What we know:
Blueprint: H1 10-17, E1 37-43, E2 57-63, E3 70-75, E4 79-84, E5 89-93, E6 115-117, E7 123-128, E8 132-137, E9 142-146, E10 148-150, E11 153-156, E12 163-170, E13 175-180, E14 184-189, E15 194-198, H2 224-230, E16 233-234, E17 245-250, E18 254-259, E19 265-269, E20 284-289, E21 298-303, E22 307-312, E23 317-321, E24 337-342, E25 351-356, E26 360-365, E27 370-374, E28 389-394, E29 403-410, E30 414-421
Amino acid sequence: MPPKRRRQSQTDVSVRAKRVKFTLDNARIPETDVEGVVLVTGSGDTGQLGLGPDVMEKTRPALVNLEQEIVDICAGGMHTVCLTKDGKVLTFGCNDEGALGRVTEGKDDAEFTAGEVKLPGRVMQVSAGDSHTAALMEDGRVFAWGTFRDSHGSMGLTLNGNEKMPYEILSNVHVVKIASGADHIVFLTNSGEVYTCGCAEQGQLGRTSERGSSRHSRGSIGKGALEKLLKPAPISLKPSLKLHFDNIWTGTYGTFCKVANKDDVYVFGLNNYYQLGLDIVGPQYVPVLSKEFSRHEWNLITCAQHHTICLTTGGKAYAIGRKEYGRLGLGEQCDEARELKEIEALSGEDLVDVACGSSVSFAVTKKGDLYAWGMGDGGQLGTGEEEDCFEPKLIKSKQLQERKVFRVSAGGQHTVILAINNNNN
Length: 425
């Protein structure tokens, strides 16, 4: 009689699945050693331009009157977030869902001018989505405020609903970088793990099945399904892969995670126009290697609803996804980009930043020029006109004549620009 096979114990399984110890000392977050001034363009009907209640729209960049020195900016759906040199957070814009993180009710025009968010320490990075804002503290804690939304309406930020004041969203975990999609937040920890929370309907959390991606999925009981989505948890990875990550990026409905010490990029989320670099069209609910995005070494990946604009460490810009309104910057006669295409109109430039909104895109050169392309309606491009741009167009304005742009961020219908005066070189 053959010997009996030894039954595998629970201890054996846990040992085999144990992750190799990994420590990420720091992540590539936006540099905050340069102070600048803030300029805005586009729609301002909810105060997101920070120019006061009488300014509803700008078609060219306008200077925001701020007393503080600003080192980083982030445009949400209808609000704006600024990080000061002293590590403080300023917000302005729509506060209906609590995205400003401060009290504005009963205060005249409080949403139309910048106000400080009270936080327990120095902030080193900010991010913003359609109706939420997040702040990463120096000590690795993360605070967030506002709400997530899905196809059924407001989900709340926690089971208590909207959080109109800063709330510590992920405790007992040291975070080194954050990123916000329209309605989800991604956290990179110092152990190389990636956590997510928020809306999962397009697969952007990377840890749900298609059936389990909705808070109203069949078979869900009470608040259990909602709690699973709102409580930050690690993305779903096979333990046998033993993966650690050292960078993260998000888009409206997509997430990108770079494997530590490699160019490999794992993606999940909406891929209906190939914006994640996958051949399979539709939502991707669990992390999968994107061979297309793993072909380059990226400095930045920024993804809107249906297209992605990204920047290599060598300063070159690439586009992939939907072509309508010129958002890819590949010319009026271009096809949908199913593969990453270099934006040839910018091939002679050394780029330091890129950004994209729903139907618009931007790039910043090392010498401080700002280029824009895509849908021209509403003034978000800053060209002074409302015509669509099918290739990158240099933005010229009185406010930019004596300034060098070094960062740009695109919101729902507005754009925020960070620049320094030329005499500050």
